[in-house]
Amino acid sequence: MKIYIKKIICLTLLLSLFGCDQYLDINEDPNVSTDVPAELLLKGMELADVQIQSGHLMRISQFWTGQMRGVDNLYGRINNYIISPEDSNDVWAFMYHGIMTQNDVIQKNSEDELVKGIANIVEAHGIGTMASMFGDIPYSKVGVETKAAFDSQIEVFQAAQVLLTSAITQLSSVSPSRKLSNDVLLGGNPVAWIQVANTLKARYYLMTRQYPEAYQSALLGVTSKVNSLRYAAAFTGYGSTMENSNLYNLILTGSRSGDLTSTGSFTQDLLDVSKVSSRNNNKTNESRRRDFLILDQAGIKSNRFSAANALMPLVSYEENLLILAETGFRTVGFNEGVLRLNALRSYLVSGNVFAGDPTLSLKYDAYVSTDFDAGGIENKDNISSNKALLREIMEEKYVSCFGTLVPFDDFRRIRSTDNDIAMPIPINSGSSYPERFLISQDEINGNEFAPSPIPGLFVKTPVNE
């Protein structure tokens, strides 16, 4: 998958005749035409964003949050927090070469508000994720100065919000019936993209603890499975080659097939009805979802997340519902939190959210307020009902957003704001959890403004201090 995406990005870069000595050194020749179809540039941007959101670093975040285990070779070492700046090189290249340089061309040269709006959302998605993973990063001076200074993490989140607001305005002028075949994520559906933009706004407001703003944005966010941003509709809309497959399938059938597994992970135990740590209760049976989330070289099945055509979530209806649950609880009150949590449970019990072995149980009955009282089925340790509800919302989000960077984002945030109800995810090595990824080695080598020394793995990013 990575090779395929690199080919697409390189093609779009060559076609647009851009040269980048380093990520942030963008040289334009005013005497050379850059008349490349904006739709082609957008496709490359989307593929680059997929790799940022669902590729190598996302899998690493799963090792660090108990969702998977790295067991051998590179992933075995990274599982135990032995990682180098080189592991971030590709993600920085995808962001600055594959997304920002292309969007700059689109915004300057295209008159298509649909393409421009989608491109701005893709850039906001990428740069917001980069800020979450790395903290301070270059942004506002990229393309303006040869070597760009680093913006603060909060400034980048604010810039992402501006981009998303602009994108919503651009897309609001587009006919709802408009389609775009080169949009490999949502087919050019402007209504769906506006909803995605609002969920991303809610996500970033949540990261910066702006709970009222997050709630209001999520009210306008993704409203259905079909409007969720997902990748790998393999063998359907954009080609039937293996390069278009689910990224888990590619890794489990490729050269690193035995290097990672979900077997023995915190998540698998959390979903196992036979385990003491299980989240199952009289109203919940996670057996089918547990089967769906089994990721192992020996366990690839057509009804699991390891299937070649299983969709990879990027911005989902489930995430939006759970942002509403948390921020509704924090800003409106307890009953709003329960209401929104039950909306998610009603969606889960429909059987349309994930596959898994259909012979296994699937149960998500609605909760009532007394379930969170001391001694209730969601409060066996007799904490306050408010804490019990928040804990359940965060635990549900941890499972529902499997396959994204959201659990890594939430786990760091909740340890900062509500550590008493943070999940007891085991530390893989030493005595501390990782708090960030390391700045790219290429960036260290090529940008004089890169911090020296770079922030270490266990240094909290500013929003989590």
Q: What's this entry about, in short?
A:
It contains 17 helices and 10 strands. The protein is mainly α.
Written account of the structure:
This protein starts with a helix and ends in a 19-residue tail after the last helix. The protein has one domain (2-421): Serine Threonine Protein Phosphatase 5, Tetratricopeptide repeat. It is globular. Strands 1-2 form a two-stranded antiparallel ribbon. Strands 3-7 form a two-stranded antiparallel sheet. A two-stranded antiparallel sheet has the order 4-5. Strand 1 (19-20) and strand 2 form a beta hairpin. The chain contains 17 helices and ten strands. 47% of the residues lie in helices and 5% in strands. The protein is mainly alpha-helical. Helix 7 runs antiparallel to helix 8 and helix 15 runs antiparallel to helix 16.
Features:
two-stranded antiparallel ribbon; 465 residues; two-stranded antiparallel sheet; Serine Threonine Protein Phosphatase 5, Tetratricopeptide repeat; mainly alpha; disordered N terminus; 47% helix; 5% strand; 17 helices; 10 strands
| CATH architectural name | Alpha Horseshoe
The secondary-structure class comes to mainly alpha
Global shape? globular
- Rg, Å, rounded: 21 Å
The overall strand count is 10
CATH third-tier fold name: Serine Threonine Protein Phosphatase 5, Tetratricopeptide repeat
Main beta sheet? 2 strands, antiparallel
CATH class, please? Mainly Alpha
List low-pLDDT spans.
1-33
Distance between the termini: 36 Å
The average pLDDT value, as a whole number, equals: 91
H/I helix tally: 17
